[in-house]
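Hi there, hope your week has been kind to you so far. It would help a lot if you went through both lines with me. No rush at all, and the record is pasted right below:

***
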Amino acid sequence: MLMLATADLLFACTYWYSKFGVPPARIAQNIASGLLGKHAFVGGGSTAALGVLLHYAMMAAMVGVYYVAAGRLVVLTQRPWLYGALYGALLFIVMNLIVVPLSAVPKAPVVMSWIISSIVVHVIIGLAIALSARRAL
């Protein structure tokens, strides 16, 4: 879980820095803005740290949900490539169509390259979760 959360955060930081020069602390503050709204961006290191903590907590929840489900639905461990990819796509949908709109994150313009690359990364995360659950169970 720690490796997945770290890789996902590194992906986001690398993407936004390389495309738009957004510093990594700002990415973490953006995550914290889900709770704090625009105030997260003036909180310095403390809101960046909160964002990182929230990111790891969300990843723990994502891993935990699949692990519990896989313990009850054997097919999730029998076909991890299929269900992991589907789970990753579902994670993207839930995060972007439910969680973020219901949070206090300020509205931002749509960046298609971010959306496409995020879908790919979420599918990879889903696969890693499913394969790990298969190994663990």
